[in-house]
Amino acid sequence: MKIIAVIPARYEASRFPAKLMQMLGEKTVITTTYQNVVETGLFDEVFVATDSEIIFDEIVQNGGKAVMTGQHETGSDRIAEAVQNIDCDIVINVQGDEPFLKLEPLQQLIEVFNNDDNQEISLASLKIKLTEKEEIENPNNVKVITDNNGFALYFSRSVIPFHREISYHVDYFKHIGVYAFRKHALIQFSKLEMKPLEISEKIECIRYLEYGMKIKLIETNFIGVGIDTPEDLEKARKLI
Predict the structure, then answer these.
(1) Which end of the chain offers a freer environment for a tag, N or C, measured as fewer CB atoms within 10 Å?
(2) Whole-prediction pTM
(3) CA-CA-CA-CA torsion sign (175, 178, 180, 184)
(4) What DSSP character marks residue 19?
(5) Which of 9, 8, 7, 68 shows the shortest CA–CA distance to 38?
(6) What CA–CA distance (Å, rounded) separates 186 from 25?
(7) Phi then psi for 207, rounded to 5 degrees?
(8) Nearest residue to 20 via CA among 6, 4, 8, 3
(9) What gap in Å lies between CA 104 and CA 125, rounded to an integer?
(10) Which residues pair with 216 in a beta bridge?
(11) How many angstroms separate the Cα of 190 from the Cα of each of 2, 86, 223?
(12) Separation CA 216–CA 206 (nearest Å)
């Protein structure tokens, strides 16, 4: 299989505009993410997909590869446009605001497709256990519930499952926005109309579920720093 990574990158993020061009040490957030993905050595090629000339120039001037796209509602739609004419089998979507992603979870996602002999899985992604009440209730944390085989049942910004039976312990999981797609499933996804659940929750993975596609979730212990707010940026700078 030919495996590539694509990093969707918007300049005008709604919660933190221009966050990808903020400095982390001596590099911008987007350049840090790009170079960290390249350094994993897992991919035949790595691209940034963006509708911003500022971000495009930032990547190219630092020796990277970038693709200009139109404007899109979701990162997956942006990636689908970017890979239309790129020869590949598996596309890994790494979020531009997750600069500290490590090797192991990316390897785990690739392994899902190596073991999928019947090619039933359209998409693989990551989840991590949540233990703090504040984190569980935070709508910025997308929660996911899965069946016994690790396939997604639903994603939500609400608390799922609802813990009605308090005498019974239940685990909560946060969805980490790193995706591995089969290219043909990604292209199909981009042609499908948004349905009410995706529109309501603003979670693009729900589109796959609404059209009956299979999403495999892999549990990870990786704790990164997703940069959604100026406070997150300060955490990332301390980590640097």
Answers:
(1) N
(2) 0.85
(3) positive
(4) G
(5) 7
(6) 34
(7) -60, -40
(8) 8
(9) 13
(10) 124, 151
(11) 21, 16, 29
(12) 13
Q: How many CA atoms lie within 13 A of 4 on its CB side?
A: 20
Question: What are the backbone dihedrals phi and psi of residue 91, each rounded to the nearest 5 degrees, phi first?
Answer: -120, 120
Pairing of strands 123-130, 90-93: unpaired
Separation CA 237–CA 225 (nearest Å): 10
Residue 187, both tokens: 């292209």
Tokens of residue 94, six digits? 């790494």
Cis peptide bond N-terminal to 8, omega within 30: no
Q: Which residues contact 47 (CB under 8 A, 6 or more apart)?
A: 4, 5, 6, 7, 65, 66, 67, 82, 86
Residue 91 tokens, joined: 């596309």
Query: Cβ distance 90 to 1 under 8 Å?
Result: yes
Q: What are phi and psi of 115, to 5 degrees?
A: -95, 0
Q: How far is CA 76 from the centre of its chain?
A: 9
* pLDDT, position 65: 97
Q: Spell out the residues 6+ positions from residue 223 whose beta carbon is closer than 8 angstroms to its own.
A: 128
pLDDT digits (tens, 9 = 90+) for 107-158: 999 999 999 988 899 999 999 999 999 999 999 899 999 999 999 999 999 9
Q: Is 28 helix (H, G, I), strand (E, B) or coil?
A: strand
Distance of CA 151 to the CA centre of its chain: 17
Tens digit of pLDDT for each residue in 8-44?
Answer: 998 887 778 899 999 998 999 999 999 999 999 999 9
